[in-house]
Structure formats: structure tokens, C-alpha cells
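[Q] Does anyone have a clean C-alpha cell version of this?
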Amino acid sequence: MTTDFGSDAEAFALAIDSKGRIVAAGWSGRQDFYDFTLARYNANGSLDTNFGNNGKVITDFSGYNDLAYALTVDSGGKIVLAGTASQNDFAVARYNANGSLDINFGTNGKVTTDFGGYYDEALAIAIDSSGKIVVAGTASGIDFALARYVAEIDTTPPTPNPMTWETVPYQTGISSISMVATTATDSTPPISYYLTLWVAPLED
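[A] Here you go.
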């Protein structure tokens, strides 16, 4: 079985998702102008036409030698690729199950990381128990390099708790009181909301 991307192409990584579909990643393009390339196949080997453009996705980072070397599928079915952008920086891209870039990750689904030199390449990828993305490879072609990425920013509002007084209300003047009350918290990281109430004097 072969898949034509209309140019040179090589696959370097493979995964099976929770539905038994085959996901393959690598690069495609012409000399020195390669892009991240992804394809998904049904269990019978046919391209999954519900994914990307008739089963195929191409992603450009920099216009020059963007090569995907590693692939994983997270517990939510999102596909994460790691490799290099311009053969200079770590490059990571995350896709929704339909093949579109996940805009909740990085900048429109893509992240690059510079270790301060040339030939920074991500060659392996894993997802830890907290959902963070861990990528390993080489920096400048001579050193081990490791980076960990937050899967996404948690925008869930803190869970309200019964109000507790951080500071018991007390009088601060003839016509005012002050108090600090914890109204909600979030365990990762802890967040507290505080309230200061000023009471206007009563008119005769």
C-alpha cells in the first residue's frame, strides 16, 4: 500500500488510535521545502476520508524543511506530532480527531522551541499521566534535549466553595468596614477571590 502526496514523501512514525485506525506521520514536499505530513487509514488500509483532505493533512511551520519524526495519540483522540521546523527548532503540532489543527494548543495548533542553536530536532514524544506532552531529541545535533508542554490552558471557572472569612469583618472607619472572604478556589494552582466591602453612612 502506498499513498501519493504529489511530491516526495517519507513516513517516520506510526500509531493506532482507540478506534483501530492507523495514523502515520512524516514529511512531504520538494528539496529543502518539506512540511509535516499526516495520514490516517481505516483498519482495512483505505484512507479515512473523514480525516483532513481525503485522509491526508499537510502542515507548514516555516516554509523550509519542517520534518515530523514522532507521533502519539492522546486519550481524547487528538494527534500530536513532533519534529523540527527549518531543521533548527523543536516543532510540535496537535490535531483534532478530524485532522484540523487544534487551536487550543500553542499558536493555532503549533509550537516551536529554540534551544539556542541549529539542528534542534524532536525525535520522540510521549504524554504523561497529567496530559502534558513530553518531547525528546537533540539540540544543536550534539546534546540531549527535552521539553515538556502544557496540553492546554485550563479556562474552567474555579469551583465555588462555601464562603469562609480570610479576615473577619472589622470596622475601618466611622462609615466603613473591611473584610476578606474566600469565595472560590481551584486546586491547580490554588486561586482565591477576595472581596472588600465599603458601607456608606446612613443618612438621617
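[Q] Thanks! Anything notable?
[A] The radius of gyration is 25 Å.
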